[in-house]
Specification:
Length: about 290
């Protein structure tokens, strides 16, 4: 019986095997990565950032792409830092206007994209904070950030980030959301996001993760997105976001850039922001106050 079962078992194992080929470093395909998100804020620097993907097996920073020629409509962007191309001072995008991005690399390859700025979906009047407690070990603290304003009747999509004293969260701590819970309504004290304090994160990312103190300024910054850019950011989040935002991306991430072996997105977004100055870091919910003048 054993002599009969052994050949049968070998045959069964052979039938269940499948050839698996692992991709090696030499099989890696190089992609251009385009980070081009412009706003309607004339005081803000408008940048297009170009880099290259790196292999999954390489623990290195993505190389920046130098020497490119970049134009949006008739405006030429100049290379301020390696791979970072900046518009002339005071340049900004306007709602309802169409924009065309043209990129030419030193090797002659070209890339193009088109975008239209959506109308602002929200009128932001004020923000405020309330202390939400800490962990039993006392290592981390939380604050809830709420906002006041008026949402438009149109369906809108937003990308939200927080800053403390001008130091803003990295991408993996930002939020992308739609307005399905308050579409077309007045918003009063809506708890839109949370501010986190952690010494571990502070050492890595900066004072945006500091413990709040009297006099600190909290700023909420939100951009209205079109549906394509919203879907792109959601795909980034589901795929495991990285710092910086586009380094590197999975090859199946959506893109609106036309060209060979390219990733990223070109978007133009209206932006609103509001700030509040901390007067008591431990202010509880039942003593929440609106900023002066609201």
């Amino acid at each position: 019986m054993k002599r009969l079962l052994l050949p049968a078992l070998i045959a069964l194992l052979a039938a269940c095997t499948e050839k698996v080929e692992l991709q090696s470093v030499s099989d890696y395909h190089d992609y251009l990565v385009v980070d081009a998100v412009l706003t309607d804020r004339p005081e803000a620097e408008q940048n297009v950032i170009l880099s290259r993907t790196v292999s999954y097996f390489q623990d290195t920073e993505p190389p920046m792409v130098r020497g490119a020629r970049i134009r949006i409509n008739e405006v030429i962007f100049s290379e301020k830092e390696p791979g970072i191309y900046t518009a002339p001072e005071g340049y900004f995008c306007e709602p309802g206007k169409d924009y065309e991005l043209h990129i030419e690399l030193p090797d002659g390859s070209t890339y193009e994209a088109a975008a239209s700025m959506p109308e602002k979906g929200f009128r932001l009047d004020a923000i405020d904070y309330a202390y939400a407690g800490n962990t039993p070990a006392g290592l981390d603290s939380l604050w809830t950030l709420a906002l006041w304003g008026q949402d438009d009747q149109i369906s809108s999509y937003y990308h939200i980030t927080l800053g403390v004293n001008g130091d803003f969260y990295p991408f993996e701590f930002t939020e992308t959301l739609d307005d399905k819970y308050f579409n077309g309504n007045t918003v009063a004290g809506f708890p839109v996001t949370t501010l986190v304090q952690s010494e571990i994160l502070r050492k890595r990312y900066g004072d945006c993760f500091k413990f709040l103190e009297e006099g600190d300024v909290i700023t909420l910054r939100a951009r209205t997105l079109d549906k394509g850019y919203f879907d792109f950011l959601i795909a980034q989040t589901l795929g495991g976001p990285t710092i910086p935002i586009f380094s590197p991306q999975p090859a199946n991430t959506p893109t609106n850039i036309r060209g060979e072996h390219v990733l990223g997105w070109f978007a133009v977004c209206p932006e609103f922001s509001a700030s509040v100055t901390v007067d008591n870091p431990f202010r509880p919910y039942y003593k929440r106050l609106l900023p002066p003048g609201f």
